[in-house]
Amino acid sequence: MSGPRVRALRPSELTADQAAVYASIAGGPRASGPKLFELTDPDGRLNGPFNAMLLSPTVGDALQALGAAVRYGTSLSDRVREMAILAVATSWDSEFERYAHEAVGRAAGLSEEEIVALRDLPALTPTDVREAAALDVVRALLERSDLDDAEWDAANAVLGQDEIFELTALVGYYATLALLMRTHRVPAPPASGAGGGAGGIGGSGAE
């Protein structure tokens, strides 16, 4: 990966519209809870996909709001959600998604063995029926962007239509972030332990 293509903006450099999006990200639900990763750098500049969202405040605000809904407003269990996000990270080889969500996944109860297995999608076979069904859906969406009739029926019998919809939206959202970060050459922050770094705003919810 080459260097970042977009300069990270300090809070003092933001327009009013950009500042409103920044406040929704840095002061919203993502910034609450345990500090599991760095949401900003020591100068207050947004990490990950969020700085790029400031380039177009209208689109960026809609995108971050979708992310908050997918992250905090679904019926998916924490474990299922983080398994799905890490599966997207593997499929897209997304450094930042892996950086943020392996930390969140541990807090959600994923073991180190499960996290390692999620770096190689076929390696993880959950013993929980609902988790296995959810991961089957995610794998199919990542591999073929679709569920065939048999896959739909199998997932619907265990998860129901609501959770299939939520998983589909989640995969689409995190794939969008991975594409955004790939195009803009966004790296993960330097390793700094589990907590938010000095001067940074930690976050439990990631993207």
Automatic annotation (TrEMBL):
List, alphabetically, the Gene3D superfamilies matched.
AhpD-like
Task: Report the domain of life of the source organism.
Answer: Bacteria
Carboxymuconolactone decarboxylase-like domain boundaries: 57-139
Q: What is this protein called?
A: Carboxymuconolactone decarboxylase family protein
